[in-house]
Amino acid sequence: MHLLDNLRAEHAEITAIRRDIHAHPELAFEEHRTAAIVADRLEALGIETHRGVGKTGVVGVLRAGTSTRAIGLRADMDALPIQEKNDFNHHSRHPGRMHACGHDGHTAMLLGAAAHLARNPAFDGTVYFLFQPAEEGEGGAPAMIADGLFERFPMDAVFGLHNWPGLPLGQIAVHRGPVMACADRFDIEIKGHGAHAAMPHQGIDPVLAGSALVQALQSVVSRNKDPLDAAVLSVTQFHAGDAYNVIPDIARIGGTVRAFRPEIESQVEDTMQRICAGVGAAFGANVNFDYRRGYPPTINTVAEAEFCAAVAAEVCGSTNVSIDPKPSMGAEDFAYFLQEKPGCYIWLGNGPGEGGCTLHNPHYDFNDEAIPFGVAYWVRLAQRWLSVA
């Protein structure tokens, strides 16, 4: 715990950075102010700094010793289009934008780790500090990859973390395998034939066909998939008509699919396609099915997850490390990094999750008491991965 004690001395400085970022949230690929804060601070620490990686991303490069080994540590920087309802001093100064997911805390903690490692380079190799834009649905990770991230900054493995409301402060959760799900979207257009509502026999009712389709789609997970393989199919939109006495021509349905395994993702898509065709034939309607893959499942590699668990135990104590808790049906674009490199994405305890502490909530705020644990985890992860011994 000696490292934690040292880092607590820097707590106020890192907290100030976190709260400044919180007060000035920026949306996906608009993180110009945040990126400038990150890059300026890295340069002030003497860390080689690359701006504009994946549009608004920043990469810091810190080398020590002579080893060719390298590790990547990632933090996300973007905020959400949510109106903040907090009234503390560091509340958002920008209407309709807020850090409701803790990316301000993630950025500040990685900056804290960069500062500590720059001042105490007790490792042999290279640490890449990856400050990623646009995690919230816009794909900042693939943008950085497309910009040559892994060619320009060759690393052996890549690691990420996310604060986790509901996980007690001072605890870390590690998954040896799936940790977050995919996030796919679908749109279904049902073309019927409009008619007077009093004479439905003269038309083809897309509302009736759509209602049957919504019901049938519920069988995809419950009756077409192995119950031991987790998946979620949620219809979240149904739009049709705008009059009380008219059967419309078209109904539109939309929603999301979540799964942990790519093969289950494909099975769900194929089954949905079959059901759409069948319902269309049964009702005489033309059903167009559009399925779009989003973020893939976030799947940790086992060896790296076990390594992270050992580091977490060193930082927090073995009794404060949770191994293989239930994964989340939420999604995370860190998954794209894990498709390219081995690595691990862990959850850092943010304290009670009741009320306004939950993610994507207008009352959310990152718990600053978690900062020393996150910084210590990053520092020890880099030091152990690039051990001098």
TrEMBL record:
GO terms for molecular function: metal ion binding; N-acetyldiaminopimelate deacetylase activity. SUPFAM superfamilies: Bacterial exopeptidase dimerisation domain, Zn-dependent exopeptidases. It holds the Pfam family Peptidase_M20. Its cofactor is Mn(2+). Keywords: Hydrolase, Manganese, Metal-binding. Residues 186-275 form the Peptidase M20 dimerisation domain. The keyword Metal-binding applies. The Mn(2+) ion enhances activity. Mn(2+) binds at C101, H103, E136, H162, H360. GO terms for biological process: diaminopimelate biosynthetic process. This is Amidohydrolase. It comes from Zoogloea oleivorans.
